[in-house]
Amino acid sequence: MSQAPLLRQITDYANRADPYPLYEELRKTPVLHEEEGGPYVISSYWDIESLLHDPRISSDFTNLAVASEDELSGPEATGLPPSFIRLDPPEHDRLRRIANSSFGPPHRPTRIDSMRGELAQIVTDLIDGFGDARKIDVVDQFAYPFPVTVICRLLGVPREDEPRFRSWVDPIVAGLDPDTRTSAESMKTAQEARLQLGMYLNGLVEQRAREPREDMLSDLVNSHGPDGAMTTMEVLSTAVLLLIAGHETTVNLITNGMLTLLRHPEYLRRLRDDPGLSVKIVEELLRYEPPVQLVPQRTCIADIELRGVTIPKGSRIWLVLAAGNRDPERFHEPDRFDPDREDIQHLGFGSGIHSCFGAPLARLEAQIALAELARRLDNPRLVEDPPPYRPNAVLRGPRHLEITFDALR
Amino acid sequence: MPTDYLDRFRREGRIVIVGASLAGLRAAETLRAEGFTGSLTMIGDEPYDPYDRPPLSKAVLLGKASALHTDLPRRREIDAKWRLGVAATGLDMTAKRVRLADGDEVEYDRLLIATGVRARPWPKESEADLDGVLLLRTRDDAAALYRRLKAGPRRVLIIGAGFAGSEVASACREMGLAVTVAERAGAPLVGALGGVIGSVSAELYHENGVDLRTGVMVTGLESDSVGRVKAAHLSDESVVETDLVVVSLGSMRNTEWLTGSGLGAGPRGIACDAGCRAFDFRGIVTDDIFVAGDVARSPHALFGYQFLSLEHWGNAVAQAEVAAHNMISSSAERRPHLWVPAFWSSQFGVNIKSVGVPPMGEQIMITQGSLAERRFVGVYGYQGRIIAAVSFDNTRWLEFYERQIERGAPFPVEFATVDRRPEGRQPVDAAFPDPSLPTHGPTVTLSGYSPSDRQLVFTPARH
Questions:
Q1: d(Cα A207, Cα A205) in Å, to the nearest integer?
Q2: Nearest chain A Cα distance for residue B339, angstroms
Q3: What pLDDT, on the 0 to 100 scale, is given for residue A225?
């Protein structure tokens, strides 16, 4: 009984490389409530799936019974309104519809697919850039720069500004980590960074309002569909969301993917011979090593009974997607990486109204990235297993992934 | 003994499936997937390989997909003997033989009936035969209707504002064609979803420029001297000039071929138990005849054991899988067909989806969103519990309500939900029409098992 509470072990950096035994422990108490005032932690596949579709669940932190001071005066209170990921319908639906009208069907059904050639070219350039090196860091030289370049082009943010916005993105992402959330100082830093990033984007948005281009910032600021226009503040918080979500998750998907393939070399071989296998590999990755491990930002606006436990209205609810993805009630041999599964399903992109906005882009990026790495790297090997991880327990992935290989093809 | 028989049957038995559409195909695939290695015969009255119908009233009419290219994707090889383009005309239950239109007879050890439904024709035959009077059910129907629409008729008249009629009207407006829709009820979709939702649908009609006439019947179709339709006469004495009439009066179950066979088959379908075994006309369950898809009528525990006929795509698949499994399983291994009804439609840019059995609903409450914005979830209550839900552009919440229906959760919905508006605090009458009156094609047909139950009997429309 001297063990630290399970939740603290999960957020403890020491367990970042392999949280899955902890998730297995977690599933033994499918509705875990360790501490007064602490979250209700949900870890089984079917429970998470059902709560993601439950209209009593809210993403709006003002519905928390006890919100911390940081949240009430949260990043959003400093000037930028919450983005749609932190809103409920109808505001969520309206903002997401407007954003989607510039991104996917029915208005822009081909936007993502038409980027296929462009994505492949970026990947080729990055791999060519390895030059004569036979040892590279997959994160810094590939998995990070690739989605950053893509989201910059899609939104219309100058790629060369990356060092600037990275200095704001890092503290914002750190603020999403439940471990750092308790620190008032890091929250304050995150708030300021979000405002700074918003102000930076505002410069671009003003320019696009005057001279629209073929990019999403132009579409967002000039939207005037059936849902009307976004206010400038809404444009900025949406742009902040898309910029960050557009690369901070994909970098982990690609890196987790390469790491997993190097640990399962038979699939790396098969992928080299059959690039089409990347579709199944990426889906299984989203189950086996999802880039977003848990959703710590939900609450309920009514008492909810789940597995005999009453979750009181206003409680914090954590949905541990990565634990649900390994639930033996749902998946045969859940701890086996098996892209040949007959029905690959996962909670990797969430589900319900907040299901990942950028999923079609993330899928395509990861498919192309992994297929090309498999095709062009001759005999790639891990230098260090496990690799060093980023601190974040929510957006979990290696900070570096050093590999060696014999030649570039 | 029975196990021996079953083993031998699974190895070398003869299964005949009458009906080569969605349910028939999925049943055949399930039989093979579960290890049936005997002979399999597929009988279908249409000359085509199994094809998908939902696109026929949507993408096909807009020219976005060809009527000839909606073949159903195959899950696996089924190694069957195909008898396509030949209708089954009779059944001899004693000799275990199916008679075919070409005079052939096919013997079976076990039979699956999945003959589905057909479009209800215009009741006056001479008018139904006029040039320019069309139905929509089959691939050929869709191809013909598409050709007519593309030719640019002056005005399309659609008789019946159920789901199919509404989808055709939507396609016509998208093509810029003038459309009149005549519906005998007070609003579109009332048979399936009730008057509260029907009035939302009526607004959609009006906003999209459809000339909607409700509370009227078409009393006659008039032709020109060469037999082309030129006008329709309505019961309110008005006349609609039209050169293309789409008759959309719901469907009729394909059971006539079973007349006199001794099977419990009639205009309301073929009655079967929850395990898809057909009843004979004496109410005794057969052990070698199974039913699946639109033509089946089976009791459902969640809905008071009423016999439900469901013209739903998802039901056809689920029921076919259960029927096939049960055909080659011992009684202990058999499964009940307990699918929660669900269907979808897309019309006038709105995605409509429903779960449960809305026509059983006495009251409805809008638990999320708003009728005026036409984005909402409506929940139907029956005797104090949730019996169904419908969404307009809010599909992603319906899974939750499906669970509530399965649990028999209480109605009215008292708990808080996101986006609950003041209008959604109180339940109101769901406003289904008097169930003793005929409607144009409800997608769920109820036939009560107890006199105290509300009954919605599928009665042929009389004009």
A1: 5
A2: 18
A3: 84
Can you give the pLDDT at residue B462? 36
Cα torsion A357, B400, B161, B302: sign? positive
User: Chain B residue closest to A94 (CA)?
Assistant: B375
> Residue B452 pLDDT more than 80?
no
Q: How do residues A21-47 score in pLDDT, each as one tens digit?
A: 999 999 999 999 999 989 999 999 999
Minimal C-alpha gap between A109 and chain B (Å): 14
Domains in chain A: ranges and CATH: 6-408 (1.10.630.10)
pTM of the model: 0.90
The answer on pLDDT for A78 being more than 70 is: no
Q: Are A372 and A127 in contact (CB under 8 A)?
A: yes
Are A301 and B419 in contact (CB < 8 Å)?
A: no
Whether residue B74 lies within 8 A of chain A, CB to CB, comes out as no
**Residue in B403, B416, B418 closest to A89 by CB:** B418
- Asked if the model's pLDDT at residue B454 lies above 60, the reply is no
- Mean pLDDT check: name the lowest of A341-350, B145-154, B347-356, B430-439: B430-439
In the predicted structure, residue B447 carries a pLDDT above the cut 90: no
Tell me the two tokens of residue B24. 């028939």
Is the pLDDT assigned to residue A213 strictly greater than 60? yes
Return the pLDDT at B3: 74
- Gap between the terminal Cα atoms of chain B: 57
Report residue B439's pLDDT band, with 50, 70 and 90 as the boundaries: low
**What is the rounded distance in angstroms from the CA atom of residue B88 to the CA atom of residue B105?**
9
Residue where the block lists tokens 């013909």 = B144
Please give the structure tokens belonging to residue A116: 């296929």
**What is the distance between the alpha carbons of residues A260 and A270, in angstroms, rounded to a whole number?**
14
Cα B355 to Cα B347: distance, rounded to the nearest angstrom: 18
pLDDT, tens digit, 9 for 90 and up, residues A341-371: 988 999 999 999 999 999 999 999 999 999 9
Query: What is the pLDDT averaged over residues B92-121?
Result: 97
For B416, the closest chain A residue by CA position comes to A302
Contact between A240 and A176 (Cβ < 8 Å): no
Please determine, for residue B441, whether its predicted confidence score (pLDDT) is greater than 80: no
Distance CA A346, CA A362 (A): 15
Smallest Cβ–Cβ distance between B419 and the set A89, A303, A355 belongs to A89
CB count, 10 Å around CB of B456?
Answer: 24
| Percent above pLDDT 90 for chain B | 88
List, as one string, the DSSP characters of B384-395.
Answer: TEEEEEEEES-G
**What residue type is assigned to position A212 of the chain?**
P
B375 CA: distance to closest CA in chain A (Å): 9
CA distances from B216 to A165, B168, B212, B234, B235 (A): 65, 19, 10, 6, 6
Tokens of A263: 């640990």
Give the CA count within 13 Å in the CB-facing half-sphere of A234. 19
Could you check whether the bond before residue A386 is cis, i.e. omega within 30 degrees of 0? yes
Distance separating alpha carbons of residues A145 and A142, to the nearest angstrom: 6
* Spatial separation of the C-alpha atoms in residues A260 and A287, rounded to whole Å: 12
Residue B355 phi, psi dihedral angles, 5° rounding: -125, 155
CB contact under 8 A, A302 and B416: yes
**Considering only CA atoms, which of B300, B309, B308, B298 is closest in space to residue B253?**
B309
Q: What ipTM was predicted for this assembly?
A: 0.90
Q: Quick one: pLDDT at residue B190?
A: 94
Residue A182: closest CA among A108, A71, A53: A71
The pair of three-digit structure tokens given for residue B277, joined into one six-digit string = 């075994």
Q: How many helices (H) and strands (E) does chain A have?
A: 18, 12
CB A56 to CB B415 under 8 A? yes
Q: What 3-state class would DSSP assign to B288?
A: strand
Full set of structural domains in chain B with CATH: 2-118+252-333 (3.50.50.60), 125-249 (3.50.50.60), 342-447 (3.30.390.30)
